[in-house]
Model the fold of this input.
Amino acid sequence: MDDEIIKRHNVVVGPEDIVVHAGDFTLKSEREALNYIRRLNGKPIFLKGSHDKWMNNQGEDILQLKIEGNFIVICHYCMSIWPGSHYNAWQLFGHSHGKHNGKGKQMDIGVDTHNFYPYSFEEIKEIMDFKDDNFNKLK
Done:
């Protein structure tokens, strides 16, 4: 399974691409995780998940960024309200393994929701374009 996930990752991620992992990257040890990471294309950013013991309590819980004018908040967990939600900011999460769709501009970005391929920004943007506005968006 690991080899197939690595293969699918490397098909769509180039060496210079930035990849955000929204937690629960692996249950493996730190040594095994680092060996896994070395095989992946891209420049990774790891957010803490509920199973990331290999990170030794390092790393961030949340990432906030702006891409092409879109304010994006990424966290392992789906949030009820997140920074900028009232301005229609996106919230990307993992943890739910496709069992929770979120509301408004939220999306589960776990690879298990995408045939074990990472999502590209373009794919996420296309999906977000068709989602309802956030319930608390200022009018």
Summary: Strands lie at 18-21, 43-46, 62-67, 70-75, 90-93, 106-108. Residues 17 and 42 are 5 Å apart (CA to CA). The longest strand covers residues 62-67.
